[in-house]
Amino acid sequence: MKQVNFIKFGLYVFGFLCFYFLLVTIFYKIEINASGTQIQNFGDALWWSVVTLTTVGYGDIVPHSEGGRIIGFIFLFLSLGTYAFLIGQISSIMNNIKENRKLGQFGTRFSNHVVMIGWTEFGKSVTDELLGAGRDVAIVTSDKNNVDLIREVYSTSKVFVLFTDYHNVDQLTKVNIEESSNVFINLQDDTEKLVYILNMKKTYPGLKYVVTLENANLKNTFLTAGVTYAISKNELASKLLASYIFEPDVAILNEEILAYADTDEKYDMKEYKVLENNPYRNKKYGTVFYDLKKECNVILVGLVKNQEGERKLFKNADDEMLVEAGDYLIMLMNKIAVKKLTSVFKTSEGLD
After folding, report:
1. CA–CA separation, 337 and 340 (whole Å)
2. What is the DSSP letter of 200?
3. Residue-wise pLDDT tens digits, 40-75
């Protein structure tokens, strides 16, 4: 809820209490000297005012002076206005809380999630793939209409939405951006993406940024600007189209591999980190290849090693290469194999 509403409400309450105690004091001063009065002290006057204001009306204390009755009338009418004011203010507060929660103003506790800046139909396709792979997604949009659309489609336990101005980078703490695994910049054009990333790097220099490019010639520019991965949509589409033209079966398989395996019949390419307790640690690549195929029906296609701070991919590595802790194994598998590997590797897919 906005702070100004709290201040306004507080001022109303303070003003009401001042007026209320002023009336009680006047009532006490008038009634204490009235003939046949039941008011013996200020506490009696306060008790009468509360009973009257709440419309309980016990009748154990009643005013005996003309002035006291006039103040009694004021309290009776004041009670109507008080209830109307309180109900209105409480309703307003609850509506503000509900609206701000819907707009993401209270933030999320997601961690190791993907933050998506901007919402488009392409972003929706990416979100579907990420959710299929078991990743949480936090979406930042500057279009309020997108909030309802996103919340209608996705569960709030897996997808968080924040409505804010993209350029207010301080607001991005609400999507827990510093605990995210990747930040996907999904803005409209390449120039806007580049400017946005340069500004983001000033506040969040250590994050991993991913962009898709309309112009493949800008790839090196984005990489120089600090983007971790820059992918040209046109380049990917042209390669897939060429495969469909002269080797359609390969194209179909590639398209399936790029998606997540949502059934036991479909296959997906995944990577798992080799931990210290991994049963394949310190074994040769060739041995691991055959063991994985036999035990989990998984095809090992590559190995990634961290060498001098850089990741190096070995596609179909040499049989004698040693699989060590900290390496990543890239494998082709179906949905059944995913469950087996997660149990054996003691970790989930993806980068840690």
Report:
1. 5
2. H
3. 889 988 898 888 877 777 777 888 888 888 988 888
